[in-house]
Amino acid sequence: MNLLKDPQMLLLLGGIGSLLALSSLIGWVLARRVRDDQARLVVANLNARIRSWWIMTAVFVAALATGGVGSVILFALTSFFALREFITLTPSRRGDHRTLFWAFFVFAPAQYLLVGIQWYGLFVIFIPVYAFLFIPVRSALSGDTEDFLARTATIQWGLMIAVYCVSHAPALLMLQIPGYQDQGAKLLLYLIVVVQLSDVLQYVFGKTLGKHRIVPKLSPNKTWEGTVGGIATASLVGAGLWWVTPFSPAAAGGIALLVCLVGFVGGLVMSAIKRDRGVKDFGTLIEGHGGVLDRIDSLCFAAPVFFHTVRYFYT
Amino acid sequence: MTAAPLAARLLAFLTRLITGVRARWVGSAPTSAQRVYYANHTSHLDTLVIWASLPAAIRARTRPVAAADYWDRPGLRRWLTGQVLNALLVERSGGSGSREALHKIDQALAAGDSLIIFPEGTRGDGTSIGELKPGLYFIAHQRPGVELVPVYLEDLSRILPKGEFLPVPLLGSATFGAPLTLAPGEDRHAFLQRARAALVALGEHA
Known about the structure:
The structure holds 2 protein chains of 2 kinds.
Chain A: H1 7-33, H2 37-65, H3 68-89, H4 97-116, H5 120-123, H6 126-141, H7 148-167, H8 184-209, H9 224-240, H10 249-277, H11 292-314
Chain B: H1 3-19, E1 22-25, E2 35-39, H2 46-53, H3 56-59, E3 62-67, H4 68-71, H5 76-84, E4 88-90, H6 96-110, E5 114-117, H7 135-142, E6 147-154, H8 156-159, E7 173-176, H9 188-205
């Protein structure tokens, strides 16, 4: 994949770099201007987030630059860390040990292998059919029936959300779109930019204008002002980036809006799980953001919907 | 001999990678004070995890107390326990063995080493903490200058439970609590109950 020879790709990467540089500058100015302790904490967290964004962007671009293999491996590792955080947070019993071993070391790698060799037919049913059926069988063989359905469903859910759903992002590279051959990397970058920009803008609008909470019991930081402002702006940016996609400007706006909305409800669902388990974050790996799963919660929901929308209308 | 420090760094790194363990210091800070770290025991990984989650300088002076019947076997295990971990190998408690074990522990403390011990004596199932063996009281009584630091290990029994040999890479944690010392006039039973309560409380905190 000639990432560095594609002018559209370079333009998009340049845009992301400029946005990050601008954020760092704003963060630096804010850090000099804040006075009270409360605000200082918020700004310190903001700057930690921006630093992590630089690192995540660098890793992602490096993976994209190596072509398909690098992207598949990066998302495979992301899924692995996300599954780790998810399973750690949910109760499992001694009888689940072997089942979990299969989930981590057989099903997750196999799913990404299928993405890598572009075997669409099996990729799309492997976890929903075969892993789904195997997991309760393996746990049943261990003979422990306490909370059996809850335990089994938890492992199935973890594999679905952290592995199956996320794997649809690199799977974009296997789509054969007429007139858009071998440009899947741009589509992947487009999805990530829209989803993550929506998250970031919801945070920015929420912190500056947010007043009316949407589901106060679930997520005190999600407000109508932040959500509407963030999603609207990210969708407009998505429409404005139509030139990197096979979509028309209007279609790009519509698809970006869909992706942002799905991503938003995905974030709500993942928050519900965190509240239920009594934690604020899934992990601590990414400074300022929490865990891997905290960063990709909206992507988990948005990736499969985006993948199938593009596949249905454009291939 | 030069391979041992390198192997120690690698082993500590691998342990942290597989178990995802982060040290949480809630009641004490990682200092060079002479200490006995005592922890709940649920997995073969426990010894490595506490050892690996200490800062390198402290780790070098901290010796895990390990059961000779499991760890003192020819080959890799003996090299690891002897050269890399610098473990203090003792016979499992019972009869004259335990008196000899306590003697070895006392000698190591006299030499200025810090130790890692598992006073339950055996691995539990990860759901509750068993009664502590009297060795801990003996140490507190003989060596009042040594800080006894409770360490609560969480989720390690899910990573590598008793009887399994393949680990599942979940995220464990090691919570270090406030140091304990023997109170004036405190008897063995009361002290052991207090030491156990400190571990239980750390578990609820974590």
